[in-house]
């Protein structure tokens, strides 16, 4: 069944969400300031938790 179609009342299902492992964002350590470095650390930690 197409996940966009509605199910009948009483029927339940789990829809699998896509997992994104790459992004179109470039990180330049040379141009990064302290806030950028902290954000990168948080993003890396979040990705590890999600795996």
From the structure above, extract its key features:
mainly alpha; 33% helix
Structure notes:
- The chain is mainly α.
- The protein is 33% helix and 0% strand.
- It has one helix spanning 34-50.
- The longest helix is centred in the last third of the chain and has 17 residues, at 34-50.
- The radius of gyration is 19 Å and the shape is elongated.
- The mean pLDDT is 77.
Quickly give the structural class: mainly alpha
Count of alpha/pi helices: 1
Radius of gyration: 19 Å
Residue stretches low in confidence (pLDDT < 50, at least 5 long) are none
Which of globular, elongated, flat, extended, rod-shaped describes the shape?
Answer: elongated
Distance between the termini: 27 Å
Major pleated sheet: none
| Number of DSSP strand runs | 0
Order of helices and strands: H
Helix content: 25-40%
Amount of beta strand: under 5%
- Described by its quaternary structure, the protein is single chain
pLDDT averaged over residues:
77
């Amino acid at each position: 069944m197409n996940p966009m179609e509605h199910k009948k009342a009483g029927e339940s299902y789990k829809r699998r969400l896509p997992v994104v492992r790459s992004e179109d964002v470039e990180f330049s350590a040379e141009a990064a300031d302290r806030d950028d470095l902290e954000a990168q650390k948080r993003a890396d930690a979040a990705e590890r938790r999600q795996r």
